[in-house]
Specification:
The complex is a heterodimer of chains A (115) and B (116). By secondary structure, chain A is mainly β. Helices cover 0% and strands 58% of the residues of chain A. The chains are: A mainly beta (115), B mainly beta (116). Chains A and B meet through strand 4, strand 5, strand 9 and strand 10 of A and strand 5, strand 9, strand 11 and strand 12 of B.
């Protein structure tokens, strides 16, 4: 079952603008990760934020995590045409059947950056 | 170069003809997993393995089999493919930690399978 739900499903912006994508989840998590996928290709890891962290930065990426609201946001600043891709959040949560933490992906946000 | 390699990248087959999609990683990762990606449904986990000879079902295991005889390889087997298994398949691997489970995944490039 899918844990993370990204919002919006699709986002179109002009080059140079900031892009914000959100992820909501339902149960407690160990960490939350964001991945990027260029059309039809493998996902690439962008950033990981642990449940005891509130904010993390990596280059033009800023991720926040609000465990009380069970939500996270990914901000891409000064977007470029090359940022056009789908972005997925993945939550690491306890899976009782497995007796361990497992990663579960959302359905993704499709970002289009118009030159 | 650290990578996950899947083969074949593209395959068209017919209903009922057994096929295997291979997956190999060169990072000595304990954890490996198979996902399928379908429009509007995102990535769904098929099977995963926490180490050699340890495999378990994901969210959509029906119609698939896996094995983990060696640490580096995790093949996905479709014994009798059906059209509803037409999809884009991804293999991924990660280090494994008892406390935190699977962490950052490294994905293969994907295998696009069409079952007629």
């Amino acid at each position: 079952s899918q844990q993370g739900e990204e919002d919006p499903q699709a986002l179109s912006i002009q080059e140079g603008e900031n892009a914000t994508m959100n992820c909501s989840y339902k149960t407690s998590i160990n960490n939350l990760q964001w991945y990027r996928q260029n059309s039809g290709r493998g996902l690439v890891h962008l950033i990981l934020i642990r449940s005891n962290e509130r904010e993390k930065h990596s280059g033009r990426l800023r991720v926040t995590l609000d465990t009380s609201k069970k939500s996270s946001s990914l901000l891409i600043t000064a977007s470029r045409a090359a940022d056009t891709a789908s972005y997925f959040c993945a939550t690491s949560r306890w899976r009782s059947g497995a007796g361990s933490y497992q990663l579960t992906f959302g359905k993704g946000t499709k970002l289009s950056v118009i030159p | 170069e650290a990578q996950v390699t899947q083969n074949p990248r593209y395959l068209i087959t017919v209903t009922g003809k057994k096929l295997t999609v291979t997956c190999s990683q060169n990072m000595n990762h304990e954890y490996m997993s198979w996902y399928r990606q379908d429009p509007g449904l995102g990535l769904r986990q098929i099977y995963y393995s926490m180490n050699v000879e340890v495999t378990d079902k994901g969210d959509v295991p029906e119609g698939y089999k896996v094995s983990r005889k060696e640490k580096r390889n995790f093949p996905l087997i479709l014994e009798s493919p059906s059209p509803n298994q037409t999809s884009l398949y991804f293999c991924a691997s990660s280090p494994w930690n008892l406390l935190s489970g699977a962490n950052v995944l490294t994905f293969g490039a994907g295998s696009r399978l069409t079952v007629l």
